[in-house]
Amino acid sequence: MALRRSKQRRRAPLHPIIFRWDLDKTYLKSEFDSLRQLMWVPFEKAQDKVAVPGVVPLITGLRETATQAGREVRVHFMSASPPQIAKAIKQKLALDGIEYDGIVFKNQLQHLVRGRFRNLREQVGFKLTELLKSRSDIPAGSREMLFGDDWESDPIIYSLYADILAGRIASDELGDVLRTIGVDPRLIAEAQERAAVARRGEAVEKIYINLERRTPPTTFRCFGPRLVPTFNYFQTAACLFADGYLMLPAVVRVAEAMVQDAGYTPGSLANSLADIARRGHLQAATTIGVREYLRAHALMPQSGRRSIRVALWQRLKPWLGRTPVRPSPQADAIDYHALVAHWRAAR
């Protein structure tokens, strides 16, 4: 017993973890697809804004799990909305009980005034430079989990950011890729400059993409196993549990939010779990564990003999108490020139 305690005391501390969230269509169900909608955004109030179902208990659960493990945790937000709406956004986060450590807005109105209409929808340069800029302000050795959506270019932005930090993209190649995308030359220069001094390492553990547009998941295979497309935050929560970043009670809270706020049923939750497992993002043991835990909370269809389910539950309980942190999958080299050409054609 004394030896075990000694080993526990000598165990190396976990790396700090940073959860980065896009705000629009990833946290909030934002609507600014036309110029008229964009102009109305600054006049919206906090109570007018609606969070994507399940996202609030997911973020809360991520912070709680990391804190309980003694791990330093930070939550950062990034928005394509103008800074004029910052007050309403911050009030909305407060209403939702979300603690955050940083938030960045895009000055869309400045682009309107200066006639830079192309920059209104071009997000790659803005988000990439902001990500690289903030990297210098976080603790050394930090790991990152990135959350975005399929509405703009989050998969490309986040993958570029991850590979820049990992040293897989040279400055010249980065410039070529950003020019192909159509990024403003001033932002290309800034991105190259910040990439040259960014704190390096395999920092990005996973990239989660909320399929707001219901893009077929096969579209994202070219990004490799580091990127996980999910149709809802229950699927995301199940994957985060599998990797040790979320506890099962938090998965339950996310599932309950899906039922209350999005009309999900035990049957549709079961279908979601089966889908994310079928796509190879969950191992069989994890899938069974999540399913049985949700069944115990009446959130999955009750099937099979009760005595068999109880016996299975008793075998699973010790395993479900663990919080394994599995290594992130090694990202394969991405041909960004081919990827960007394919992505633009698909969009």
Give a written overview of the molecule.
- This protein is an alpha/beta fold and 347 residues long.
- The chain folds into two domains: 216 residues, Rossmann fold; 80 residues, no CATH class.
- A six-stranded parallel β-sheet has the order 3-2-1-4-5-6, with helices on both faces.
- Strand 2, helix 4 and strand 3 form a beta-alpha-beta unit.
- The protein is globular, with a radius of gyration of 21 Å.
- The chain starts with a helix and ends with a helix.
- The N terminus is likely disordered.
CATH architecture of the largest domain: 3-Layer(aba) Sandwich
CATH C-level of the largest domain: Alpha Beta
Distance between the termini: 59 Å
Topology order in helix (H) and strand (E) letters: HEHHEHEHHHEHHHEEHHHHHH
**SS class:** alpha/beta
Counting H and I runs of at least 4 residues, what is the number of helices?
Answer: 16
Which residues sit in consecutive blocks of at least 5 with pLDDT less than 50?
1-10, 34-39, 111-115
Q: What portion of residues belong to β-strands?
A: 5-15%
Count of spatially separate domains: 2
Helix content: 40-55%
Radius of gyration: 21 Å
Q: How do the strands of the widest beta sheet line up side by side?
A: 3-2-1-4-5-6
Find the CATH topology of the largest domain. Answer: Rossmann fold
